[in-house]
Amino acid sequence: MPHTCAKLIYHCIFSTKGRRVMITDVVRERLHRYIGSILSASHGSLMAIGGTADYLHMLITLPASLSVADAMRLVKANSSKWIRETFETHSTFGWQTGYGAFTVSASVVDDVIRYIDNQEQHHRNRTFEEEFVEFLDRHELEYDARYLWD
Q1: What dotted CATH number matches 8-147?
Q2: CA 14 remoteness from chain centre
Q3: What per-residue confidence (pLDDT) applies to 132?
Q4: Residue whose C-alpha is closest to residue 52's, from 131, 108, 112
């Protein structure tokens, strides 16, 4: 086969540094668009994005040439710099060091998009921390709880 054929879909989850409430209404929409432009410039795409004032969920596609680690580094580094430079009140903004990334089958994309779109409602019943640990457990990832949060 002379060409690489891949459709790589990831559900990525990460929070603000120290879970600080910084993704305000003033920032949110512009941040989402900016993250979409970062991914687009890297030949990926943002299928869905949502969250609350202290974390994000993203459903993204990446080209085979871009690892999820590199994509997350690009998104987090560039968006945090942009927030600090764009919003005077956010000069100390930062993302947590780590992230969660889970592969998604094309057959469940619509379900994941609905899940991401309903984050505010979803978190009336469960905390971000509880949800994230559930993702790790559901995907059978080993982790040390001491190092999940920064």
Answers
A1: 3.30.70.1290
A2: 5
A3: 87
A4: 131
**CA-CA distance, 82 to 93, in Å (whole number)?**
10
DSSP 101: E
In Å, how far are 29, 41, 54, 83, 93 from 24, measured between CA atoms? 9, 25, 9, 11, 12
User: Is-contact 5 63, C-beta < 8 A?
Assistant: no
Q: What is the mean pLDDT of residues 90-116?
A: 95
Residue 107 — pLDDT band, cuts 50, 70, 90? very high
Where are the chain's structural domains? 8-147
pLDDT in tens, 31-50: 999 999 999 999 999 999 99
Residues above pLDDT 70, as percent of the chain: 99
Contact 12, 57 (CB under 8 A): yes
SS3 content of the chain, % helix, strand, coil (to 5): 50, 20, 30
pLDDT at 60: 98
Q: Are 48 and 58 in contact (CB under 8 A)?
A: yes
